Protein backbone atom coordinates (compact mmCIF):
# COMPACT_ATOMS: atom_id res chain seq x y z
CA UNK A 1 0.00 0.00 0.00
CA UNK A 2 1.08 3.58 -0.64
CA UNK A 3 2.45 5.35 2.38
CA UNK A 4 1.08 8.78 3.09
CA UNK A 5 2.30 11.52 5.36
CA UNK A 6 0.02 13.80 7.28
CA UNK A 7 1.15 17.40 7.59
CA UNK A 8 -1.08 20.12 8.94
CA UNK A 9 -4.23 18.05 8.47
CA UNK A 10 -3.58 17.59 4.72
CA UNK A 11 -2.31 14.66 2.66
CA UNK A 12 0.91 14.99 0.68
CA UNK A 13 1.95 12.67 -2.13
CA UNK A 14 5.08 10.55 -1.65
CA UNK A 15 7.51 9.21 -4.24
CA UNK A 16 7.96 5.43 -4.54
CA UNK A 17 11.48 5.61 -6.01
CA UNK A 18 10.57 5.15 -9.67
CA UNK A 19 10.41 8.88 -10.43
CA UNK A 20 6.63 9.09 -10.12
CA UNK A 21 4.69 10.78 -7.39
CA UNK A 22 1.51 9.23 -6.01
CA UNK A 23 -1.05 11.87 -5.12
CA UNK A 24 -3.77 11.23 -2.54
CA UNK A 25 -7.15 9.98 -3.63
CA UNK A 26 -9.19 12.45 -5.57
CA UNK A 27 -12.87 13.05 -5.14
CA UNK A 28 -13.73 9.96 -7.22
CA UNK A 29 -11.68 7.52 -5.09
CA UNK A 30 -8.93 7.22 -7.71
CA UNK A 31 -5.22 7.56 -7.15
CA UNK A 32 -3.44 10.14 -9.34
CA UNK A 33 0.09 9.40 -10.57
CA UNK A 34 2.16 12.13 -12.20
CA UNK A 35 5.74 13.19 -12.82
CA UNK A 36 7.37 15.48 -10.25
CA UNK A 37 7.55 18.43 -12.66
CA UNK A 38 3.85 17.99 -13.46
CA UNK A 39 2.86 17.97 -9.82
CA UNK A 40 4.71 21.19 -9.05
CA UNK A 41 2.33 24.01 -8.25
CA UNK A 42 1.77 26.47 -11.07
CA UNK A 43 2.70 30.02 -10.18
CA UNK A 44 1.04 32.83 -12.05
CA UNK A 45 3.41 35.30 -13.65
CA UNK A 46 2.69 38.93 -12.91
CA UNK A 47 1.18 40.83 -15.79
CA UNK A 48 3.58 43.08 -17.64
CA UNK A 49 3.01 46.74 -17.10
CA UNK A 50 1.36 48.38 -20.13
CA UNK A 51 3.77 50.25 -22.35
CA UNK A 52 2.88 53.88 -22.58
CA UNK A 53 3.75 54.99 -26.10
CA UNK A 54 2.55 58.52 -25.55
CA UNK A 55 5.49 60.75 -24.82
CA UNK A 56 4.95 64.04 -23.11
CA UNK A 57 5.08 66.52 -25.96
CA UNK A 58 6.15 70.09 -25.59
CA UNK A 59 3.39 72.66 -26.14
CA UNK A 60 3.31 73.86 -29.73
CA UNK A 61 2.89 77.49 -30.74
CA UNK A 62 0.28 77.97 -33.43
CA UNK A 63 0.58 80.95 -35.77
CA UNK A 64 -2.76 82.26 -36.98
CA UNK A 65 -2.89 83.99 -40.37
CA UNK A 66 -5.05 87.10 -40.04
CA UNK A 67 -4.48 88.97 -43.28
CA UNK A 68 -3.02 88.28 -46.73
CA UNK A 69 -2.43 91.34 -48.90
CA UNK A 70 -2.13 90.96 -52.66
CA UNK A 71 -1.99 93.32 -55.62
CA UNK A 72 -2.60 93.06 -59.35
CA UNK A 73 -3.14 95.22 -62.40
CA UNK A 74 -5.98 95.30 -64.93
CA UNK A 75 -3.83 97.07 -67.57
CA UNK A 76 -6.44 99.66 -68.49
CA UNK A 77 -7.58 103.09 -67.34
CA UNK A 78 -10.47 103.03 -64.85
CA UNK A 79 -13.09 105.75 -64.55
CA UNK A 80 -13.59 105.94 -60.80
CA UNK A 81 -16.73 108.07 -61.05
CA UNK A 82 -18.40 105.53 -63.34
CA UNK A 83 -17.46 102.69 -60.98
CA UNK A 84 -18.90 104.64 -58.02
CA UNK A 85 -22.21 105.23 -59.85
CA UNK A 86 -22.71 101.76 -61.32
CA UNK A 87 -20.77 99.48 -58.99
CA UNK A 88 -22.04 97.51 -55.99
CA UNK A 89 -20.60 97.80 -52.47
CA UNK A 90 -18.27 100.62 -53.48
CA UNK A 91 -17.16 103.80 -51.75
CA UNK A 92 -15.56 106.66 -53.65
CA UNK A 93 -12.92 108.59 -51.75
CA UNK A 94 -12.10 111.48 -54.02
CA UNK A 95 -9.57 113.01 -51.63
CA UNK A 96 -7.53 109.79 -51.76
CA UNK A 97 -8.02 109.27 -55.48
CA UNK A 98 -9.27 105.70 -55.11
CA UNK A 99 -12.39 103.56 -54.78
CA UNK A 100 -13.00 100.96 -52.09
CA UNK A 101 -14.91 97.84 -53.16
CA UNK A 102 -15.95 95.00 -50.85
CA UNK A 103 -16.83 91.34 -51.28
CA UNK A 104 -18.74 89.08 -48.90
CA UNK A 105 -17.26 85.75 -50.01
CA UNK A 106 -14.43 85.78 -49.31
CA UNK A 107 -14.75 88.78 -47.02
CA UNK A 108 -12.19 91.12 -48.57
CA UNK A 109 -11.71 94.78 -49.47
CA UNK A 110 -10.09 96.16 -52.62
CA UNK A 111 -8.56 99.58 -53.15
CA UNK A 112 -8.85 100.57 -56.82
CA UNK A 113 -6.92 103.39 -58.50
CA UNK A 114 -7.61 104.98 -61.87
CA UNK A 115 -4.26 103.71 -63.19
CA UNK A 116 -5.60 100.15 -63.03
CA UNK A 117 -3.73 99.07 -59.91
CA UNK A 118 -5.78 97.09 -57.37
CA UNK A 119 -4.79 96.08 -53.83
CA UNK A 120 -6.80 93.41 -52.03
CA UNK A 121 -6.78 92.92 -48.23
CA UNK A 122 -8.68 90.81 -45.70
CA UNK A 123 -8.07 87.27 -46.97
CA UNK A 124 -6.89 84.62 -44.51
CA UNK A 125 -5.01 82.45 -47.01
CA UNK A 126 -3.22 82.76 -50.34
CA UNK A 127 -5.99 80.81 -52.07
CA UNK A 128 -8.67 83.17 -50.76
CA UNK A 129 -6.58 86.17 -51.82
CA UNK A 130 -6.30 84.93 -55.40
CA UNK A 131 -10.01 84.07 -55.61
CA UNK A 132 -10.94 87.52 -54.30
CA UNK A 133 -8.58 89.25 -56.75
CA UNK A 134 -10.14 87.46 -59.72
CA UNK A 135 -13.65 88.32 -58.52
CA UNK A 136 -12.75 92.00 -58.24
CA UNK A 137 -11.36 91.88 -61.77
CA UNK A 138 -14.59 90.23 -62.95
CA UNK A 139 -16.67 92.96 -61.30
CA UNK A 140 -14.70 95.63 -63.16
CA UNK A 141 -15.09 93.69 -66.40
CA UNK A 142 -18.87 93.58 -65.97
CA UNK A 143 -18.87 97.39 -65.70
CA UNK A 144 -17.55 97.59 -69.27
CA UNK A 145 -13.80 97.92 -68.77
CA UNK A 146 -11.34 95.92 -70.87
CA UNK A 147 -9.78 94.16 -67.93
CA UNK A 148 -6.73 91.89 -68.23
CA UNK A 149 -5.67 90.16 -65.03
CA UNK A 150 -1.94 90.74 -64.77
CA UNK A 151 1.00 91.09 -62.33
CA UNK A 152 -0.69 89.27 -59.46
CA UNK A 153 1.48 88.79 -56.38
CA UNK A 154 1.20 88.47 -52.61
CA UNK A 155 2.86 91.50 -51.03
CA UNK A 156 2.35 90.86 -47.31
CA UNK A 157 1.16 88.24 -44.84
CA UNK A 158 0.16 89.08 -41.27
CA UNK A 159 0.25 86.38 -38.59
CA UNK A 160 -0.11 86.41 -34.82
CA UNK A 161 0.81 84.01 -32.03
CA UNK A 162 0.87 84.02 -28.23
CA UNK A 163 3.74 82.72 -26.13
CA UNK A 164 2.87 80.73 -22.98
CA UNK A 165 4.93 83.17 -20.91
CA UNK A 166 5.53 86.88 -20.48
CA UNK A 167 8.45 88.64 -22.18
CA UNK A 168 10.78 91.14 -20.53
CA UNK A 169 11.03 93.49 -23.47
CA UNK A 170 13.59 95.77 -21.78
CA UNK A 171 16.06 92.92 -21.33
CA UNK A 172 15.23 91.56 -24.78
CA UNK A 173 15.94 94.87 -26.52
CA UNK A 174 19.24 95.29 -24.64
CA UNK A 175 20.46 91.80 -25.52
CA UNK A 176 19.53 91.88 -29.22
CA UNK A 177 20.93 94.67 -31.35
CA UNK A 178 18.40 93.98 -34.11
CA UNK A 179 15.57 94.97 -31.76
CA UNK A 180 14.18 98.51 -31.82
CA UNK A 181 12.29 99.59 -28.72
CA UNK A 182 10.78 103.06 -28.36
CA UNK A 183 8.31 102.95 -25.44
CA UNK A 184 7.21 106.55 -26.10
CA UNK A 185 6.11 105.63 -29.64
CA UNK A 186 5.08 101.98 -29.47
CA UNK A 187 4.51 99.56 -26.55
CA UNK A 188 6.20 96.66 -28.35
CA UNK A 189 9.65 95.77 -29.62
CA UNK A 190 10.29 95.74 -33.36
CA UNK A 191 12.59 92.87 -34.32
CA UNK A 192 13.67 92.35 -37.93
CA UNK A 193 14.77 89.00 -39.34
CA UNK A 194 16.99 88.71 -42.39
CA UNK A 195 16.44 85.04 -43.26
CA UNK A 196 13.54 84.61 -43.67
CA UNK A 197 12.80 88.27 -44.21
CA UNK A 198 10.18 89.23 -41.65
CA UNK A 199 9.35 91.85 -39.04
CA UNK A 200 8.17 90.87 -35.56
CA UNK A 201 6.25 93.03 -33.10
CA UNK A 202 6.90 91.60 -29.62
CA UNK A 203 4.82 92.65 -26.61
CA UNK A 204 5.37 92.10 -22.89
CA UNK A 205 2.20 89.97 -22.64
CA UNK A 206 3.79 87.32 -24.89
CA UNK A 207 1.87 88.30 -28.01
CA UNK A 208 3.91 88.35 -31.24
CA UNK A 209 2.84 89.77 -34.60
CA UNK A 210 4.70 88.59 -37.71
CA UNK A 211 4.61 90.52 -40.99
TrEMBL record:
UniProt-listed Gene3D superfamilies: TATA-Binding Protein
Broad class of the protein's primary localization: nucleus
Species annotation: Asbolus verrucosus
SUPFAM superfamilies, sorted: TATA-box binding protein-like
Subcellular location: Nucleus
Molecular function per GO: DNA binding
Single GO cellular component term: nucleus
Any GO BP: DNA-templated transcription initiation
Cited Pfam families: TBP (PF00352)
Protein name (database record): TATA box-binding protein-like 1
Similarity remark: Belongs to the TBP family.
Keywords: DNA-binding, Nucleus, Transcription, Transcription regulation
Amino acid sequence: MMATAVQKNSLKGLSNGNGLVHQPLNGYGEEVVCAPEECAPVTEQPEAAPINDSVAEEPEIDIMINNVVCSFSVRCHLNLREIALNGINVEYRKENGKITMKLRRPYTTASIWSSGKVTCTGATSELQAKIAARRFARCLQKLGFKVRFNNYRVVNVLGTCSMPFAIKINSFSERHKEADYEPELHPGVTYKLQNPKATLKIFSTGSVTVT
